[in-house]
Amino acid sequence: MAETKYIFVTGGVASSLGKGIISSSIGKLLQARGYSVTIQKFDPYINIDPGTLNPYEHGECYVTVDGHEADLDLGHYERFLGIQTTKANNITTGRIYKSVIDKERRGDYLGKTIQVIPHITDEIKRNVKLLGNKYKFDFVITEIGGTVGDIESLPYLESIRQLKWEMGKNALCVHLTYVPYLAAAGELKTKPTQHSVKELQSLGIQPDILVLRTEHELGTGLRKKVALFCNVDEKAVIQSLDMPTIYEVPLRMQEQGLDSIILQKMGLPVGETPSLGPWRAFLDRRHKATEMVHIGLVGKYDLQDAYKSILEAVSQAGTYNDRKAKIHFINSEKLTDANVEEELKDMDGIIIGPGFGPRGVEGKFVAIKYCRTHDVPTFGICLGMQCITIEFARNVLGFEDANSYEMNEKTSHNVIDIMEEQKAITNMGGTMRLGAYECVIDKDSKAYEAYQSEHIQERHRHRYEFNNEYKEQFEAAGMKCTGVNPESGLVEIVEIPTLKWFVGVQFHPEYSSTVLKPHPLFLSFIKAAIDK
Ligand code: GLN
To answer: Is 344:468 a contact under the CB 8 Å cutoff?
Structure first.
């Protein structure tokens, strides 16, 4: 395709309507037609990236292969499209301002007064076009975080207005809104949608397509009414009903012709509707899998979004093992030797979650000890892996005060330690070991059985590392280091081979599990949980 096409996805009426899922679904449908597609998210907050945000504020922090701490929506983009995103796929207001201010300090603006328009909007526009220009994508989908009407969103919407004006048919706006159902009146209400579109129009943006989130089927009358009041073609008013799984959404969008409408409006040939074969096969398998596998997730954040990628990776691996994976959240702050049996006994497998800081760590040790001594399939991820080694050091090697430097700087048995180069760091943001690193796997291991490869690359997000001074003692006592970074010698994977499935990984495998390519370690862990 000669020129890159730009699709903007905005949201109105309320937040959390699923702009990320709609953007991913549009991407999926265009990709199925043979176009190269990428998706980016613009977040209107002032943080440079979400790395310093508490998961309670903004859910999980996703990590890209190139080591950027990103919004969790990038996880949806990768899971749906099977693509890899980068730092350029997630921009925040903080990044935009920082870049403009840096340019101002360098003197790049030649004495001009720096203003929101044109300087901030120009920087936003430059970032919108960056991916398209650099990698020649056919489509760049840009999701704007927040809700139309927010003060923070204004510069983004002004940039979209300008880009739509400059690009003509090569730019299009999809606006997602909500149609509430008033039970007392027995009616669906379109007024909030009308108001939200008016708000967009007052900013100079006419949405081309409306996607209406609803809990009840919208009749033709209602669609006609929305179309008429909002200046949108009737067939460009699409409904998005609640689905049992988010992975159904692309199919429901395709049935209503969302992708054909986009192509038509952008002056591209519509042609035949692709069959989405492998995607449908995944969904069929998912619907047929009714037998359950119960996985306990031990962690301190009792909030779904905080472990988004782990939940998705587990549920995908469940489907590929023909099971419905049910995750039970187990709050590590409440786990004690007295209640651990009661809490864990019905689980087929346990995940020890990632995390930061000492809160809830002692409960993780309690869970790990129970799993290790009862041979429950156990998967430790990042802090979870570190806890697996600490528990082993305390209860098998007999180092009672064993700990991570993160939890206790003074421990005499720092089995998890801080690297010299990390010690010097004073800034919190973006300074951890981040992004993809290589790992070489021992052929005689559960990890190798899963990956079927000696060389892998996985994403990291942590500051502390396994202390190699203890490696020999661990191995002699039965915990093997089966994955190691070939350059630094840092330990990436630990296992207890005498147990059914007891694996800890310093990296985050959950980030790279996708719908059509589930992650080998999650597949193997779920299989072990089923076999238990
Ligand atoms: N807090 C640990 C570290 O920084 C683990 C981080 C994580 O689980 N992502 O090393």
So the answer is: no
What is the separation of C-alpha 128 from the centre of its chain, rounded to a whole number of angstroms?
A: 21
d(CA 514, CA 198): 38
Cis upstream peptide for 44 (omega within 30°)? no
Q: Give the whole-angstrom CA distance, residue 384 versus residue 510.
A: 13
| Dist CA 65 CA 67 (whole Å) | 5
Range 413-421, long-range pairs (CB < 8 A, 24+ positions) = 413/470, 414/467, 415/389, 415/390, 415/466, 415/467, 415/470, 415/474, 416/386, 416/389, 416/390, 416/464, 416/465, 416/466, 416/467, 417/464, 417/465, 417/466, 417/467, 418/463, 418/464, 418/465, 419/465
CA proximity to 140, closest of 37, 62, 224: 37
Instruction: Decide if 382 is catalytic.
Output: yes
- 495 carries an active-site annotation: no
Calpha distance 153→42 (Å, rounded): 10
Residue identifier of the C-alpha nearest atom 3 of ligand 1: 462
DSSP string of 88-145, one letter each residue: GGEEEHHHHHHHHHHHHHHTTTTTPPP-IIIIIHHHHHHHHHHHHHHH--SEEEEEEP
Active site residue 510: yes
Structure tokens at 231: 């200046």
Give me the tens of pLDDT residue by residue for the chain, a chain 532 residues long: 679 999 999 999 888 899 999 999 999 999 999 999 999 999 999 999 888 888 887 889 999 999 999 999 999 999 999 999 999 999 999 999 999 999 999 999 989 999 999 999 999 999 999 988 887 899 999 999 999 999 999 999 999 999 999 999 999 999 999 999 999 999 999 999 999 999 999 999 999 999 999 999 999 999 999 999 999 999 999 999 999 899 999 999 999 999 999 999 999 999 999 999 999 999 999 999 999 999 999 999 878 889 999 999 999 999 999 999 999 999 999 999 999 999 999 999 999 999 999 999 999 999 999 999 999 999 999 999 999 999 999 999 999 999 999 999 999 999 999 987 777 777 778 888 999 999 999 999 999 999 999 999 999 999 999 999 999 999 999 999 999 999 999 999 999 999 999 999 999 999 999 999 999 999 999 999 999 8
Question: Alpha-carbon distance 250 to 266, whole Å?
Answer: 20
Choose the catalytic residue: 119, 175, 508, 519.
508
C-alpha of 272 from chain center: 32
Identify the active-site residue in 230, 382, 387, 439: 382
Rounded distance between C-alpha atoms, residue 438 and residue 436, angstroms:
7
What is the atom index within ligand 1 of the atom nearest the CA of 465? 10
- Rounded-to-integer distance, Cα 308 and Cα 76, Å: 9
